[in-house]
Specification:
By secondary structure, this protein is an alpha+beta fold. Helices cover 17% and strands 23% of the residues. Bound molecules: zinc ion (2 copies). The site of one zinc ion (ZN) has 7 residues, from helix 2.
Amino acid sequence: MAFLEAKKLLAPEAYDPKAVKVGLTSGAGVDITWADGHESRYLFGWLRDACPCATCEEERGGSGRKPGEPAKANPAALPMFKPATRPTKANPIGKYAIQFDWNDGHTSGIYSWQYLRDVCPCGECGRPKVSG
Ligand SMILES: [Zn+2]
Ligand SMILES: [Zn+2]
C-alpha cells in the first residue's frame, strides 16, 4: 500500500468495528460503525475497485488509481453492459478482516478493518488531496 498517502494514525478503536452490515441481498453495500463512533459506507462497486489483493493493487498502481477509483474506460471501446458488481458471499476472516466472493469470480481480496478504515470514502476521511 505504498501508494496510499501517509495518514495520521488513528486511535486503536478507530479500527475496531462495532457493527458491520453487509447488504448482500439489497446490494446496497457495506455499513460499518466503528468503536470511535465513526460511520463508514462502502458501495460494492467501490469496494471491488478498492480490492486490496496484490493483483488489483498492482493494476491500480500501474494506472495511478486510488483504491475505489474505477478503471478508465477505453474511449475506443464500445460501451458494454456490465452487471452491477456485488458479492455473492461475504466471509469473515478471523476478527480482523472480511473477504468477498465477487460476482465477477474474483475472491482474493481480504479487506482488513484497518484497510477499510484507512480508505473510508466519506467526506470527512476521503479525498485528503484533490488531484486532477
Ligand atoms: Zn483483487
Ligand atoms: Zn470516514
